[in-house]
Specification:
Order of helices and strands: HHHHHHHHHHHH
Strand content: under 5%
Helix content: over 70%
Number of helices: 12
Largest sheet: none
Distance between the termini: 75 Å
Shape: elongated
Number of strands: 0
Structural class: mainly alpha
């Protein structure tokens, strides 16, 4: 299961990064000189290739990826922060938030089943309290309401399952936020760059159109970088959300198997937990009971 998940993650990252890496590689690669049709044209062709290389160097060819990133402007700092946050959320979501073994530990399932089989619900409650996991939290919520009847137990279990689901979705949802915001951040950097480019054009004129096209190509790097972060962020968001939904369903099935055929009639009025019960009889009832009959 883990190997399949990692393979899917790396495949998604490759699909997202390959197009931009290819584009950078094409920009960095000098234009090849066309093959001469005859031996007599070899020297002019070589000269033309050299001229093309020089023109390419002036126009921004031969740049490294780091130089392309610097061309994106200060806005690339925020895109870099989003990229680090995306990587952290993906790894954290895979290893902690949507980890099946941490949500429904096999040892906890076995221990609770043995205690429920023996009917030792007090020890089951203590086991849940001493061994913290989403499974034991849900089971403990149900056991604490066992003396109130089946409906109270079901409501407590549903509320705790919803709480665990919200906890998972809380971390995963930030990937969606990054997926929405990073293209906007990249577009903002592109707009600022276009403003600078056309301001330069207004002051110096259009003496060399290649300079304007090079400037426009550089500012578009911010938009491309934003999309490069947004694509894997969106993919990971839906992927981790589906993993979380699957784990929540498994959690509900495990809890349902534990509470099936629960002897609520024998547990009526029992308080299995150690939490303090604050609700008491009304004070006027207490006074009536304490007052001796005339």
């Amino acid at each position: 299961m883990k190997l399949r998940s990692l393979a899917a993650l790396f495949t998604a990252a490759f699909i997202a990064f390959a197009p931009l890496a290819t584009a950078f590689a094409q920009d960095a690669k000098p234009a090849d000189a066309p093959a001469p049709a005859a031996a007599s044209s070899a020297a002019p062709a070589a000269d033309a290739a050299k001229d093309a290389d020089k023109t390419g160097d002036k126009g921004g060819g031969g740049k490294s990826i780091w130089e392309h990133i610097k061309d994106g402007g200060p806005i690339m700092i925020f895109i870099g922060i989003c990229s680090v946050a995306t990587l952290y959320l993906i790894v954290d979501g895979l290893l902690r938030v949507t980890n099946y073994k941490k949500t429904i530990p096999t040892m906890h399932v076995t221990g609770l089943r043995n205690l429920f089989r023996s009917g030792d619900y007090v020890s089951a409650y203590k086991f849940c309290k001493n061994n913290v996991s989403p499974l034991t939290d849900v089971c403990r919520a149900g056991l604490s309401m066992a003396g109130e009847g089946k409906n109270a137990v079901e409501e407590a279990v549903v509320a705790e399952v919803s709480k665990q689901n919200a906890r998972m979705q809380y971390f995963i949802s930030y990937l969606s936020v990054i997926g929405v915001c990073t293209p906007m951040i990249g577009l903002l950097g592109t707009v600022f760059g276009m403003i600078r480019a056309f301001s330069t054009l207004g002051t110096s004129g259009i003496g060399d159109p290649s300079k304007l096209s090079t400037a426009i190509g550089e500012v578009l790097i911010a938009t491309a970088s934003g999309l490069l972060i947004a694509i894997p962020a969106f993919f990971s968001f839906y992927w981790l959300r589906n993993r979380a939904a699957k784990i929540i369903h498994s959690l509900q099935e495990t809890i349902g198997s534990l509470y099936r055929k629960m002897p609520y009639e024998h547990l009526a009025g029992a308080h299995l937990g150690d939490e303090e019960l604050y609700a008491a009889l009304p004070n006027w009832v207490q006074q009536t009971e304490q007052t001796p009959a005339a």
